[in-house]
Amino acid sequence: MSGDTDHGAAAIAAARVERRWAGLSIGIICVLVVLAAYTGIHQAVMPQAQVETADPRTLHISGEFIESNLGSAVEPDGSVTVRAIGQQYSFTPQCILIPTDTPVRFRATSADVIHGFLIEHTNVNTMLVPGYISAATTRFSTPADLVMPCHEFCGAGHEGMWGRIKVIEKSAFQKLAADRRRMTCVAQ
Ligand code: CUA
């Protein structure tokens, strides 16, 4: 007799626990739906502040990323802009020349697939997405030879895709810049 009562009480308890867990999982689903809706709406009403595009099919023919415009250039305000392209499986220029103690702005894009753009020991870490221009700003305090590996899998030759950064004294860089419009390590 008491066995039956125990059984009944246990069934009631089990049903209560089941309802609680069912409620919890429905609650989690509701939270996820609200989150998905919120991020979707948020992205639609607040697009990225700045999206710059570059057609990968015409990169080499016209515009900012033609070959003669790649490398480091001194701006009128004294800062340096570096333009580069990533393609399977190298960077152009292969070695980027940079002065110390100068704000350096990188502008880069991809000619084919998505590549990674990372400079060791700096905050520069972005992706090169075909069709879009990636920008990053940094500054180097001491002369150095740094590596710039592609860190986004981009095909069979991915692990061989490395660029180099050569940071030289500001004075030496300015001397070179005096008679050249665009600089790379090769021109040094
Ligand atoms: Cu380019 Cu990996």
Compile the SSE list and pairings.
Layout: H1 2-45, E1 71-74, E2 80-87, E3 90-92, E4 95-99, E5 104-110, E6 115-118, E7 125-128, E8 134-138, E9 144-149, E10 162-168, H2 170-177
The structure holds dinuclear copper ion.
Dinuclear copper ion (CUA) binds at residues 86, 89, 115-116, 150, 152-154, 158, 161.
Model description:
Strands 1, 2, 3, 5 and 8 form a 5-stranded mixed β-sheet that branches. This protein has a 3-stranded mixed β-sheet with strand order 4-10-9. It folds into 2 domains: 1-46; 56-187, Cupredoxins -  blue copper proteins (Immunoglobulin-like, Sandwich), CATH 2.60.40.420. It is built from 2 helices and 10 strands. It has helices spanning 2-45, 170-177, and strands at 71-74, 80-87, 90-92, 95-99, 104-110, 115-118, 125-128, 134-138, 144-149, 162-168. By secondary structure, it is α+β, with helices and mostly antiparallel strands. A hairpin with a 5-residue loop joins strand 1 (71-74) and strand 2. The longest helix has 44 residues, at 2-45. The structure holds dinuclear copper ion. Dinuclear copper ion (CUA) is lined by residues 86, 89, 115-116, 150, 152-154, 158, 161.
